Amino acid sequence: MLEVLHSLLFSTLDAAPALVFAALGAMLSERAGVVSVGVEGMMRTGAFCAAVAALVMPTPLAVLVGMAAGAGIAAVHGFLSIRWRSDQVVSGMALNLVAMAGGTFLLESLYGPNGTPAITQLPRWNLPGLSHVPLLGALSGHAAPTYLAFALPVLFHLLLSRTPLGLRLRAVGDKPHAVATLGLSVPALRWGAVLGGGLMAGLGGAVLSTAVLDRFEQHTPAGLGFMALAAMVFGRWTPLGAFAAALFFAFGNALRIGLASSAPWLLDMIPQGFLLALPYLLTLLVLALQGQRGHAPAALGTPYEQESR
Amino acid sequence: MGERARQMLPSVLSVLLALAVCWLAIAFTRDLDTATRAYLQMLWGGVGNWPAFLDGGSSTAVLRPLGEAAMKAALLTLTGLSVAVAFKVGLFNIGAQGQMIWGALAAALVGAHVSLPGALHVPLALAAAALAGAAWSSIAGILKLKRGVHEVISTIMLNWVAVSLVDNWLVIGPLRAVAEGASSITGTAEILPTAQLPRLLGDSSRLNLGFPLALVAALGVWAWLTRTRSGYETRAVGLTPEAARAAGIPTLGRAGGAMALAGALAGLAGAVLVLGTEGRYPGSLGAPYGFDGIAIALIGNNHPLGAALAAVVFGILRAGGTRMQLLGVHKSFPELIQGFALLFVAGRMVWLALLERRQKRAQAQGPAQAGVEVPRA
Lengths: 309, 377
Description:
heterodimer, A: two-stranded antiparallel ribbon, B: mainly alpha, 15 helices
């Protein structure tokens, strides 16, 4: 029993970082008022570029390349939605489609259908003293992103709630005109948040191809970006909430895979499809109960126009 | 330039630019000659291999590609209409995929387990699919109207729930076809012959009643939006909800109705897939037609007939795309074209600014206006 729990925790902590980073990235962008449905495409681009880069450079550097690639895609989103005030959901979905088909096309023409060649994974760290403690031992033996995934939500929380920059970012998502009245640039703040969100989503994707797997595959990230979006909403657009929701989703996934291997008899009683649907059903239920008005940034999805009031 | 032409121009230019960009993509990853031949293959595969037809006179060379293109166009038209109808009332329906899944399942069940004469069987299966899709989309509609849950999030969630429940449980579990003989079947039981959509060009082409059905649906949605009171009210709610409410239009009812209609159209797409070509709910629905619907609706400028036109164009490219594999170009290449086209359409404002500047230069002063109807998601 303890062993099962241990392995569940371990695989949760392995799978969670990608989701946590992407959810934080989406949150950063949305708190500044720019919808972030393109996060799946940013993750895919980050995962692909990190895997390709890792073929020619050390893997940790390749992760940075993946982050930059995510920011590159986010820049297109920023150009369309901030500079040209396009519909933000449309622009995001377009980027998802391009990343989906473009990733497939480039993968096939450069490496063949089975994915990139294997790369060196990010090194795993053993925490001395912890490895043999029951349950807590599951904390040991992960790659750096896992530990970063615990630190960053706290950092984001402090940034948003304790610093002037955080205050401005939140204000630009709620009342952009008030921010403009203070003589601050609404577009500059939104650009910063969108690019920062792209860096985070790119990191989330890069983690998939460099730490979870050791290559980029056709189906990476397989909807994780949309799941990150759900985690962000579930977590009410807060860093710590998004973190908790992402952990919950990752645990749900680990539970399903873990159950299939360790307790097949349970699957005879509860169909696997139902277990698969559970995190999404729960999200819907929570959203239905709490209602969503009042949590989303007030100016979310509204292009900023100086003249309009 | 007429008003209608100016509305269409950004979409047309976007598709052309996407074709050019993707042509360059092949030219860079392979070479110029391959790119040109691949595009020719795509054209022949989509509109029929006319050179082969004129050479040897085999009508299959033309009918088969046309049938494939029409089949793809039918699905894209219906999912595109689904997204467009929701847009008209200001809602972004990302859930066409999930609605299509339930529609396909309902059509497969009615098609296989109800026995009726053909004249009744097909309409009943279509109606069941439309109802199933409408029921699924109404969950998102109700959550939006009653609890303020953003439809983008709820429809994405509902997509996952539909895939999980149907593809990963019902179809491989309780509803799986009972295998006859040694062959193991994936998917549900085969539909009865009475439930099949009739083929229109005989056995040489898979063109079936689904394509005319989709076109009729497009015309119907267009007529409803422009010629009826409730359609007019629906558009009014989408454009300015406050003014519509002040004018006494039941805004909640119109929004809910549009969302239900969107689901019904996506459900019909599922029915056309099952009754027209697959013959059963397959192991999984395969291509994400629901997501394609988003691209089709937006490239078609949210106009029902525009969506049908965009669906025909991309149906042709899709059908032709499979032939590009002969040259080693991946069959999902048309999706890349579609993605870029949507990206350029998302930059509609850029196009309009460019066009406006051109126009201003042409005539010293002109009433240039950006007459676009971009719904707020």
